[in-house]
Amino acid sequence: MFPLASAERTAQALDSWFTSLRQTLDGTVFSVAADERRRRAAALGVVTRHVFELEEAAGQPAIQVRETAWVLAGATRWLAMMPGLSQWRAAVRNVVSLDARLDAMPKDSPWVEDVAAIFRSHMLETLRQAGVARVPTILNAQNRRVALGLSVNWGMRYLVAGAAGLAEHEVDDPAAREVVAAVSGGLP
Question: Which positions ≥6 away from 71 have C-beta within 8 Å?
Answer without folding.
Answer: 46, 47, 50, 51, 54, 127, 151, 155
